[in-house]
Specification:
CATH class of the largest domain: Mainly Beta
Strand order of the largest sheet: 3-4-9-8
Number of strands: 9
Radius of gyration: 23 Å
Number of helices: 2
CATH topology of the largest domain: Immunoglobulin-like
Oligomer: single chain
Order of helices and strands: EEHHEEEEEEE
Helix content: under 10%
Length: about 140
Amino acid sequence: MVETSYRVPVHHGGNFWGGLMDPLKGIGNKISDFFSPTAEASGNDQLYEIHVELPGVDEEDIDVTTDDNVLLIKGERKFEREEEGRTYYFSERSYGQFQRSFRLPGDADLAKVAATYTDGVLTVKVAKKEAGRNGEQRIPVNRG
């Protein structure tokens, strides 16, 4: 018999895998509701670039925002597998909501942020502020 719990197929029965996995079923359900995608960040003189691996996530399920020099990436990898007659003994695939945040350096220009999603990889590019546009100003010193 196959049933689903938190959208994940769960097998009950007298075989080895069913009995072995029963005590871990609750933990697996909690983990399946959240996952943390892997990322890497790099930069050059003009911009910062962040790559986040999101295979199996639809573009419309990704949300990218900035607030107070923090880049926030969140979304959901949905569980959409429905197969009759198939028994799953375990699954190590991650499904559910995800969220990653990255504190941006002070020279990040939040007015110039672009995101692209290709082949399961989200790329976010954040331009650096031009010299002189970072809020610096020269203060004259007067004789008193």
